[in-house]
């Protein structure tokens, strides 16, 4: 079965400025070949998934305000099926990381990501989550959220305008439309690979000094032995 | 001034005075500091601890305390230092000014200075397994020492205080934050109603809150340390990313501080534009806080109304600055570019629209029986507590404190315009909400006067001539402005480095929200757990401003 460029209702394929990766994905899928029955089933499922993506409210700073504007009357993301922002990760389809992720927040973000039900997607929204942004040199900022969770769409800007957020969301829709249950661009496999690499990387980094809070406390003056 | 010096000398004989700076500087040795602090507050009326800045001067470390007399609005600052870098100790003043509790924890976190007699010595922003004290000049920034953690953080249940006995002996007393039999529930860090990543641990008795432990630092980005590695014009960008709802005011404060240090005269037109932008930002911020407060009580429709008018303000920013948020418009010496030709027309139009819509907001929400029941008489904050916790902004004014920096220490052109400082005396959630709504009216009044001034304005110079390489003489400066949520202060210290790329030696941002979070425990105590959300929403802090 031949895979074509994904079509979405809201925007034409030619109007997108970043088509190269979509075309690459399509070429990959065509090269590996797809069963007609499974392919059609995939299309049906993806049509459903792509048109009702529910975001998870995850805003840490400035980008969250723009996300609120996206939900408010002028921009109104409900028009595209990004209907209800959920407050529980269990009910959400994608997590849009808005704002800097710090060392203290990182474990919480990983946990939230793990709590989300399949299928789940991640948009790195804003310069901070893409690379650390203006805080790249800071001592306690994660330099890009892709250090800890796999990212589907990168969205630069500080903060990105609501129009840019739409662009990222529509890109995500197209990406979803190309996903296959068997073979091809397989979410589960790529994610597994991501976390295996993560674990490997963590093993390689020299072990951090074990926290010596207790020792510090011992050394405090006036401590009676 | 001489009178104050005499009186301080009586309390502490070894105090040294320096009048060369903008405010009187008093240097007090640590052993006399606690008694002096008490006398300063009780006898001389310095009841407002405006800022507490920890500084590492390499040969010594210590704190600078900015104190304000809430009656006369006089400011002095006190310097207390310690030469011991291994185990630095200072006396705590958290029993004198309650706001010092969290601020001393911040200093402990950044510099490792332990405060004697402080009730709860824990880190505030960083994880308790953090290695090193980041704002020290000799901090080892090796990322391998503090890698990105993948494991969950352990609750910081254990704390200690260093108690000094009467004969001067120090004794470490270990404590627990919550007793073993207390029922503690966790709110956050990812919770829709905490307005960002803030975490509370609330101890409950039935449905009633007994104690709230604030766990902050989930968005601590180390802005103060980052500023030490940048030149002055570069540091401006971080001010907009702390309290993004007071972006203009924060940037204004740092610009004013650097201009004060350089002795630059800003053109009248530039100050006027800055002031108008500040007031637009204030309206925008109060509309957002209206939207969030209503949404937290379940009135989702009101949220959409608030955001509808905010978009009009964003349009004005967009046309002049080219961005909706993080405008980067103020600069040292003035503003980056002149305003859009339609700016004044747009602002006039906006004033009419918002004035009209305010009636709609009140009709929609203010008199609503649910709103009244959930806000009236809930989360009381007395005037004494507001001063003790150095609460400013709408929250302070709702408790009857005269604390609007625009009136107490007028900056920019605020002494040329007419407006009222809104002071209510209820101190409950309802009054905090009402102060904001009334401040929108005052901002409109200021904006209308500014529009008339813009029409009469003859000069079209929008930026003073500023040297290409900004070099500050050695010294330190403090500048306050009235941000949307209270007095925002910038402490700037320069070592007078003659090299061309001069960087600030120490830059501290005294954010209003940091003080606001200090009253969460106080206001929520003995209220229902459901009211924790409405109270914190009415206090209206912005988390990145707390954590910086």
Low-pLDDT parts of chain A are 207-225
Largest interface: A-B, 55 and 64 residues
Tell me the number of strands of chain B: 19
The number of domains of chain B: 2
Helix vs. strand class of chain B: alpha+beta
Distance between the termini of chain A: 78 Å
CATH superfamily of the largest domain in chain B: Cytochrome-c3 Hydrogenase, chain B
Overall pLDDT of chain A, averaged? 79
CATH class of the largest domain in chain B: Mainly Alpha
The helix count of chain B comes to: 18
Portion of residues in helices of chain B? 25-40%
CATH architect. name of the largest domain in chain B: Orthogonal Bundle
How would you characterize the overall build of this protein?
The complex is a heterodimer of chains A (225) and B (548). Chain A is globular. Chain A has a single domain, classed as Rossmann fold, CATH 3.40.50.12280. With 225 residues, chain A is an alpha/beta fold. Chain A has helices spanning 20-32, 36-51, 62-71, 106-115, 127-131, 162-177, 187-204, 213-219, and strands at residues 55-56, 94-98, 121-125, 153-155. Chain A starts with 19 loop residues before the first helix and ends in a 6-residue tail after the last helix. Chain A has a 4-stranded parallel beta sheet with strand order 1-2-3-4. In chain A, helix 3 (62-71) crosses helix 6. Chain B is an alpha+beta fold and 548 residues long. Chain B has 2 domains: 16-141 and 159-169, Beta Polymerase, domain 2; 223-547, Cytochrome-c3 Hydrogenase, chain B (Orthogonal Bundle), CATH 1.10.645. The two termini of chain B are 35 Å apart. Classes of the chains: A alpha/beta (225), B alpha+beta (548). The interface between A and B is large, with 55 and 64 residues.
């Amino acid at each position: 079965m031949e895979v074509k460029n994904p079509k979405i209702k809201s925007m034409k394929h030619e109007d997108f400025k970043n088509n190269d990766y979509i075309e690459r994905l399509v070429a990959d899928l065509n090269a590996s070949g797809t069963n007609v029955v499974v392919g059609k089933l995939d299309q049906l499922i993806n049509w459903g998934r792509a048109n009702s993506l529910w975001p998870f409210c995850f805003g840490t700073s400035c980008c969250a305000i723009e996300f609120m504007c996206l939900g408010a009357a002028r921009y109104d993301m409900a028009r595209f099926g990004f209907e209800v922002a959920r407050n529980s990760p269990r009910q959400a389809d994608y997590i849009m990381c808005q704002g800097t992720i710090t060392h203290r927040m990182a474990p919480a973000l990983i946990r939230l990501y793990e709590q989300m039900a399949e299928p789940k997607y991640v948009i790195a929204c804003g310069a901070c989550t893409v690379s650390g942004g203006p805080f790249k040199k800071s001592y306690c900022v994660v330099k890009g959220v892709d250090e800890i969770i796999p990212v589907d769409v990168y969205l630069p800007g500080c903060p990105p305008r609501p129009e840019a957020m739409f662009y990222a969301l529509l890109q995500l829709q197209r990406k979803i439309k190309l996903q296959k249950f068997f073979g091809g661009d397989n979410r589960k496999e790529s994610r597994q690979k991501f976390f295996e690499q993560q674990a490997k990387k963590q093993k390689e980094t020299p072990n951090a000094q074990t926290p010596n809070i207790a020792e510090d406390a011992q050394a405090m003056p006036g401590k009676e032995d | 001034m001489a009178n104050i010096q005499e009186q301080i000398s009586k309390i502490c004989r070894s105090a040294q005075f320096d009048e060369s700076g903008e405010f009187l500087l008093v240097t007090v040795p640590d052993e006399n500091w606690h008694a002096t602090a008490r006398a300063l507050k009780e006898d001389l009326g310095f009841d407002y601890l405006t800022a507490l800045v920890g500084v590492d001067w390499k040969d010594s470390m210590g704190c600078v305390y900015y104190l304000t007399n809430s009656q006369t609005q006089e400011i002095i600052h006190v310097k207390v230092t310690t030469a011991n870098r291994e185990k630095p100790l200072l006396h705590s003043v958290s029993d004198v000014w309650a706001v010092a509790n969290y601020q001393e924890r911040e200093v402990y976190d950044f510099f490792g200075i332990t405060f004697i007699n402080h009730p709860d010595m824990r880190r505030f922003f960083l994880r308790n397994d953090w290695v090193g004290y980041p704002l020290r000049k000799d901090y080892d920034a090796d990322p391998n020492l503090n890698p990105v953690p993948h494991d969950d953080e352990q609750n910081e249940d254990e704390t200690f205080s260093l108690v000094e006995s009467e004969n001067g002996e120090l004794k470490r007393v270990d404590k627990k934050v919550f007793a073993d039999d207390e029922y503690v529930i966790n709110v956050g860090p990812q919770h829709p109603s905490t307005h960002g990543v803030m975490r509370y641990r609330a101890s409950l008795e039935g449905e009633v809150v007994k104690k709230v432990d604030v766990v902050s630092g989930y968005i601590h980005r180390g802005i103060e340390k980052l500023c030490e590695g940048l030149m002055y014009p570069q540091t401006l960008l971080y001010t907009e990313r702390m309290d993004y709802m007071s972006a203009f005011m924060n940037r204004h404060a740092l610009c004013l501080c650097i201009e004060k240090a350089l002795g630059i005269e800003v053109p009248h037109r530039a100050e006027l534009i800055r002031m108008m932008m500040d007031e637009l930002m204030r309206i925008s911020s109060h509309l957002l806080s209206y939207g969030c407060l209503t949404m937290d009580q379940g009135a989702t429709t009101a949220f959409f109304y608030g955001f509808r008018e905010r978009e009009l303000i964003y349009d004005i920013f967009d046309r002049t600055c080219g961005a909706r948020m993080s405008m980067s418009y103020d600069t040292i010496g003035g503003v980056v570019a002149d305003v859009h030709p339609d700016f004044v027309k747009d602002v006039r139009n906006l004033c009419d629209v918002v004035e009209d819509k305010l009636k709609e907001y009140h009709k929609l929400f203010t008199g609503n029986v649910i709103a009244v029941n959930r806000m009236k008489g809930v989360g009381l904050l007395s005037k004494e507590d507001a001063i003790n916790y150095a609460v400013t902004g709408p929250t302070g004014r709702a408790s009857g404190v005269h604390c609007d920096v625009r009136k107490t220490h007028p900056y920019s052109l605020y002494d040329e315009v007419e407006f009222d400082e809104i002071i209510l005396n209820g101190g409950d959630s309802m009054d905090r909400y009402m102060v904001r709504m009334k401040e929108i009216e005052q901002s409109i009044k200021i904006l209308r006067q500014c529009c008339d001034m813009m029409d009469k304005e003859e000069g079209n110079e929008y930026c003073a001539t500023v040297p290409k390489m900004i070099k500050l003489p050695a010294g330190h400066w403090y500048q306050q402005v009235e941000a949307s949520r209270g007095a925002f202060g910038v402490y700037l210290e320069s070592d007078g480095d003659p090299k061309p790329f001069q960087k600030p030696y120490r830059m501290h941002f005294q954010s209003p929200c940091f003080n606001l979070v200090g009253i969460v425990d106080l206001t929520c105590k003995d209220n229902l757990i459901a009211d924790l959300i409405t109270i914190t929403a009415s206090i209206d802090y912005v988390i990145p401003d707390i954590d910086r």
